[in-house]
Amino acid sequence: MQIYITKDGNQTGPFTEEQTRGMISAGMISHDDLAWIEGAADWKPLSAVLGISPPLPRIPRSASSVLAGQPLSKSSDGPTGVGGWLVLFCVVLTILDPLNLLVQMVSEWGRAFRIFSTIKYVFIWENVGLSAIVIYGFIVGCMIWSGSQRGRAIARRFLLYRLFGFIGVEVIAIQFMSDLPSEVLTARIGWMVRRLFGEGVHFAIWWFYFKKSKRVRNTYGHE
User: Phi and psi dihedrals of 12, rounded to 5?
Assistant: First the structure.
């Protein structure tokens, strides 16, 4: 079979089928170049004349990641999924925080009602406010633990709400303590300051973790 080829407007040939395939392999011509053989009604692409399939276009790695359903911002370098410290974060929110609040309520409520009639309102307000924060944290922990793709955003929002929630609860609680003896008021405010300091440390540690952790980045993607 004698093959005539048109490339860049120039007609060459004739070539044998073997010669043509060799030129394609060498990159001298492409599957899309037009060719004609004796008896043919018109010029056709070489792929049609030779009965071969043109090569599939090369897909960039980034595009192949999207087609595979993997976000480009995620990485496979290092741990991924809900594990390690991320599991600990979920355990704290769903188990340890509720247990700690329950123990605190049981140990302090009796003392609050026995000592001063005024201070009981402080404990009522604090426990209502802290219960709301703990319930919110329980929901967040369950969402992250169950594999929510928005885990990092949910956790960061919760950390901010928790920090400012604690500050708001304690600031308002001070308004109920105006009638307390000065030494009791001083001791109570000192306890609040230590509690808020602990919450600040808690916020800083976990905020830094969700910002720098490889596991978080591999699981939820780059920011």
Answer: -130, 165
